[in-house]
TrEMBL record:
Keywords: Aminoacyl-tRNA synthetase, ATP-binding, Ligase, Nucleotide-binding
Keyword 4Fe-4S set for record: no
SUPFAM superfamilies, per database record: Class II aaRS and biotin synthetases (SSF55681), Nucleic acid-binding proteins (SSF50249)
CDD domains per UniProt: LysRS_N (cd04322)
Taxonomic source organism: Dissoconium aciculare CBS 342.82
Protein name as annotated: Lysyl-tRNA synthetase
Residue ranges occupied by any Aminoacyl-transfer RNA synthetases class-II family profile domain in the UniProt entry: 223-554
PROSITE patterns (UniProt xref): AA_TRNA_LIGASE_II
GO MF annotations, alphabetized: ATP binding; lysine-tRNA ligase activity; tRNA binding
Length: 581
């Protein structure tokens, strides 16, 4: 590639940044001018406290020194709460370990003064570490330190600032392990705003999630629960011989689920519309065809649908595929996974002191979750068997059932949607009492699953199961359709549901479009395979005790994320609808 090509492809914005990097004095001059405008010319939400803080810092420290590089001090060990307690547990009250200098580095969460020459700081270092800053001890290493300079530090430091405190491990007379400062604490990053003691307003919490995390422990602890959920998932699969893979997010046609995709255009393929994946399923099954026996992926998926308490257009999904696994195998693995995850989260909450996380209200210790068959259970609820779902009148027959039972008819009332609504009304509520597998859905509801004739009802059903807990779907699993001929026919049926084959307006736009490339791949032989998928956020909601998906996402749902990048959100003008939508 020629030098001219490289220069031509450099984005203008990036080129501008490279130019700026060669002008450090210009940066320094701009910084010294004080607060200007936010991005895109939006005025900063300047408060009186903010202006006072700027003035206070300016009078004490040159502005270019507010954000120094972390000092590289030889032979100093950065200490955290756990390591401090383990390493120096033998220290007695009023005893100091002078052998090893240590440093507590983190954000101040509390400041207490005892006269004019003694300050106690609580530093957040994966747990709160107390720093004792005593003038009489500091002058031993810095004889030039005087009272005015010490008082200036005590007046300047405040909750929210990031400081480094160098010193030695010390146990106070009251028995608390601390860091006894041997040098005046060094400011690493000031907080220019007063950290509130309480933050409860939903609008403000959504507008400033970083502040919410500083004030409300549950916000950070929920994300730690998410970490343990994802780690338990990957450990569970790794221990069983699965290979973690990454599959494309951008593709020509998004398949693998019944959902409406996002569309975009790439500069390299300007004349083609691309879609963001709605599920990694078809890619993962190609890998099984290619010779893998067990694969999984944990990554993002995108569905162009609404935002509510349990749905967000962008979410994390975990899917795994195992050759020669049956539906029974998949349900057993699901039970084992949730039991193990429950134990892992309880252990983490105890060892990490996640006090803001409530105990899981669902009993997941049962070795076998309750199972109900879709059609027999539905027939029992409505008092009679369902009509032949393979007949040409099946849709109108089910609509009549809705009318006779005074049930609201869903939008785009295709047969799969009608049956799904019946399950939501009659079957899923049983999961409020205990985890519930709904199995053997009608074949029309599962175009990627193998099907068979139900011995009880004589209906065509799929080798599929869904796990519901407290009325919410948590996992979907089935034996994969591996016949290219049957799969092609099922894709054709899905296109008919969309109204594409006949050009009908108002079809179900969330029905699958089909993937001819995947059908061609099936011609090479997909072994009998079991597939499983779940939304990670649902699991986090369950184990963190949160009712809204926005509460388990670091920056909330899509409306919040978009609003965070707008001028209105910067000045706090978001509406309740944007926050709670």
């Amino acid at each position: 590639m020629s030098k001219e090509t490289i220069v031509r492809r450099l984005r203008p914005s990036l080129s501008h940044r490279f130019q700026c990097l060669h002008q450090p004095t210009q940066f320094a001059h701009s910084f010294s001018l004080g607060p200007m405008l936010c991005a895109q010319g939006a005025p900063r939400d300047v408060t009186h406290d903010y202006e006072k803080r700027i003035t206070q810092l300016d009078s004490s420290i040159p502005r270019l020194e507010w954000y120094p590089r972390l000092p590289a001090v030889a032979k100093i060990s950065q200490i955290q709460k756990n390591s401090l307690e383990k390493r120096y547990e033998s220290l007695q009250p009023d005893e100091t370990n002078e052998e090893q200098e240590i440093a507590a580095i983190g954000r101040i969460t509390s400041i207490r003064t005892a006269g004019s020459k003694l300050v106690f700081l609580d530093i957040e270092t994966s747990g709160s570490v107390q720093a004792v800053v005593q003038l009489s001890h500091l002058v031993k290493s810095d004889p030039d330190l005087d009272v005015p300079r010490f008082k200036s530090f005590a007046k300047l430091a405040r909750v929210g600032d990031v400081y480094m405190v160098r010193g030695h491990a010390h146990r106070t007379a009251r028995g608390e392990l601390s860091v006894l400062a041997s040098h005046l604490p060094k400011l690493l990053a000031p907080s220019l705003h007063q950290v509130p003691a309480v933050l409860e307003d939903a609008s403000t919490r959504a507008a400033q999630p970083h502040v919410d995390m500083l004030v409300n422990p549950v916000a950070v602890q929920t994300l730690r629960v998410r970490h343990h959920v994802e780690r338990t998932l990957t450990d569970f699969l790794d221990d069983r011989g699965f290979t973690k893979v990454t599959t494309p997010i951008l593709c020509a046609s998004a398949g693998g689920a019944v959902a409406r995709p996002f569309e975009t255009v790439a500069t390299e393929l300007a004349h083609e519309t691309l879609q963001l994946r709605i599920a990694p399923e078809l890619w993962l099954k190609r890998l099984i065809i290619g010779g893998f026996k067990r694969v999984y992926e944990l990554g993002p998926a995108f569905r162009n649908e609404g935002v509510d308490a349990t749905h967000n257009p962008e979410f994390q999904i975990c899917e795994f595929y195992q050759a020669y696994a049956t539906l029974g195998d998949l349900m057993t693995m699901t039970e084992e996974l949730l039991r193990g995850m429950d134990a892992a989260i309880k252990k983490a909450c105890s060892s990490e002191k996640l006090s803001a996380i409530p105990a899981c209200k669902v009993d997941l210790t049962s070795p076998k979750f309750k199972r109900v068959e879709f059609l027999p259970a539905l027939a029992e609820k409505i008092g009679h068997s369902l009509p032949d779902l393979d007949s040409s009148t099946a849709t109108s027959d089910i609509v009549a059932l809705f009318e006779n039972n005074s049930l609201p008819i869903p939008a785009s009332p295709t047969l799969p949607r009608l049956l799904d609504a019946l399950a939501g009304h009659y079957l899923e509520p049983a999961s409020n009492e205990s985890p519930l597998f709904i199995i053997h859905h009608p074949a029309c509801m599962s175009p990627l699953a193998k099907h068979f004739i139900c011995e009880t009802t004589g209906q065509t059903v799929s080798a599929r199961a869904e796990l519901f807990v407290q009325g919410r779907e948590f996992a979907n699993m089935y034996e994969e359709e591996n016949s290219p001929f049957v799969q092609e026919e099922k894709f054709a049926q899905q296109r008919a549901l969309r109204g594409e084959s006949a050009g009908v307006a108002g079809g179900d736009l969330e029905a699958m479009t089909g993937d001819e490339g995947y059908v061609r791949a099936l011609e090479w032989g997909l072994p009998p395979t079991g597939g499983w998928g779940c939304g990670v956020e649902r699991l986090v909601m369950l184990f963190a005790g949160r009712d809204r998906i926005a509460d388990v996402l670091p920056f909330g749902h899509l409306r919040n994320v978009v609003a965070l990048g707008t001028a209105d959100r910067l000045v706090g003008k978001n509406t309740k609808e944007e926050v709670c939508g």
